[in-house]
């Protein structure tokens, strides 16, 4: 891992910018395939790799612990968080269904031509990538994150965007542990969302985002060994319309 720059701290006269750099460096390492779930994290080793003192490393690990990316045990130090359980996965899907259709609806009402063109560029970039190795999938996962984040940004609701940003980190970690071959389906679903936003159709944008999340969840549920009966995705799509519509009312009242 490359060391971080000390110039920002010196210019600011305090360690906060450096702490942010260390946090971002550790986050990048955690969402790469290089570190396995449950791996032990040694503060002194990280400090040497980053060419910083242990203090900003501890601060960064504290933030990562709050976000659920690392866990700390008494007298055992930090470890990378274990793989997501089936229950945690379902909770993540439920939260995404409550929030992402909301921002898609608002993005269709708020995004301008320039923002939509940038969103199309992201979709094209994902479509043109060659999924030939693990590193390419890492790039695809980053582009997928950027696509969803651009929609959240386009909604103008920064509270929801910040909440989703924390969720997306866990989504990326899960995907990197369960790389699949369903890229074409995801790309088609992304384009359907984008087309609805381009048309300025909030209802369709909300519906297509909800459909994408449900379809994606169905694909990734195959990663679990749980053989319990799974609900038909089309039934879930219908049921979650109520959840999303309630979320719209709540979110719009905050903007």
Give a structural overview.
α5 packs across α7. β2 and β3 form a beta hairpin. This protein has two domains: 64 residues, Orthogonal Bundle (Arc Repressor Mutant, subunit A); 140 residues, Four Helix Bundle (Hemerythrin (Met), subunit A) (Up-down Bundle). The chain is built from eleven helices and three strands, in the order ααβααββααααααα. It has 255 residues and is mainly alpha-helical. Strands 1-3-2 form a three-stranded antiparallel β-sheet. The chain starts with 6 loop residues before the first helix and ends with a helix.
Shape: globular
Element order: H for helix, E for strand = HHEHHEEHHHHHHH
Number of strands: 3
Provide the low-confidence segments as ranges. Answer: 5-15, 227-236, 238-255
CATH architecture of the largest domain: Up-down Bundle
Major β-sheet annotation: 3 strands, antiparallel
Instruction: State the domain count.
Output: 2
Q: Could you name the CATH class of the largest domain?
A: Mainly Alpha
> Overall pLDDT, averaged?
79
For the largest sheet, list the strands in their spatial order. Answer: 1-3-2
């Amino acid at each position: 891992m490359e060391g971080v720059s000390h110039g920002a701290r010196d210019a600011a006269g305090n360690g906060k910018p450096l702490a942010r750099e260390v946090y971002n460096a550790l986050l990048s390492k955690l969402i790469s395939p290089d570190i396995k779930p449950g791996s032990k994290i040694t503060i002194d080793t990280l400090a040497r790799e980053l060419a910083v003192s242990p203090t900003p490393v501890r601060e960064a690990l504290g933030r990562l612990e709050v976000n659920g990316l690392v866990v700390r045990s008494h007298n055992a130090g930090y470890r990378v968080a274990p793989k997501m359980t089936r229950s945690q996965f379902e909770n993540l899907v439920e939260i995404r269904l409550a929030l992402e259709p909301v921002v898609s609806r608002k993005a269709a009402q708020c995004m301008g031509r320039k923002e939509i063109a940038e969103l199309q560029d992201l979709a094209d970039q994902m479509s043109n990538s060659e999924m030939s190795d693990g590193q390419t999938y890492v790039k695809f996962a980053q582009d997928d994150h950027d696509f969803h984040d651009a929609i959240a940004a386009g909604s103008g609701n920064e509270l929801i965007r910040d909440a989703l940003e924390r969720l997306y980190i866990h989504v990326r970690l899960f995907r990197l542990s369960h790389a699949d071959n369903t890229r074409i389906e995801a790309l088609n679903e992304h384009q359907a969302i984008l087309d609805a936003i381009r048309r300025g159709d909030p209802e369709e944008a909300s519906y297509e985002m909800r459909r994408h999340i449900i379809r994606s969840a169905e694909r990734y549920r195959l990663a679990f060994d749980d053989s319990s009966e799974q609900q038909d995705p089309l039934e879930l799509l219908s049921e979650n319309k109520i959840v999303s519509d309630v979320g719209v009312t709540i979110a719009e009242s905050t903007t």
